Amino acid sequence: MPTAARLVAATLLAILGWVLSELIRPLMPEGTDFGWFNYVNAFIGLCVGWIVMGSRAGRGLVSGINNGITGAAVMVVWGLAVHSAYEMFRLAMRNRYDGPMEAVTAIFLIASEFGIMIATAPVIITFFVGAVIVGPATEYAAKNWR
Questions:
Q1: pLDDT per residue as tens digits for the range 85-113
Q2: Which of 84, 134, 131, 77 is closest to 109 using CA atoms?
Q3: What's the whole-model pTM score?
């Protein structure tokens, strides 16, 4: 059921996903073709905000902050999963893997490499500041706009 809290959480997490994408771009190897990178991450933030955060809104400020951190963490995990699966598929089309199990295992290796690449101070600080803003804003929407 659509609520103001779901709309606020989805919008703000989409914005956070876009901002984090802009911070991640310079960290990737030079010559990387990003294509729809920002749009995919914003869409993931939109979905996570609507599904995960919006349904948990309305439980108080501390729960709101926890909800923001949880929502942002889920967004990062889903983003790593989507982008590493895409990278595995790109490499699989070049016959880099001997079998399907090796390709599936590569998703986790690629995700861990991406995770290490993006674990820098600006990304982590933006992640937490954004999460602490999104959570209480969602709580505010849940309390005041019914």
A1: 999 999 999 989 999 999 999 999 999 99
A2: 84
A3: 0.90
Task: Render the burial of 88-111: b for 16+ CB within 10 Å, e for the rest.
Answer: beeeeeeeeeeeeeebeebbeebb
Count of domains observed in the chain:
1
Sign of the four-CA dihedral 12, 48, 71, 39: negative
**DSSP code of residue 50:** I
Q: How far apart are CA 140 and CA 133, in angstroms?
A: 11
Distance CA(124)–CA(41), nearest Å, equals: 16
Q: Tell me the residue range of the domain where 48 lies.
A: 4-144
For tokens 């500041």, the residue is 129
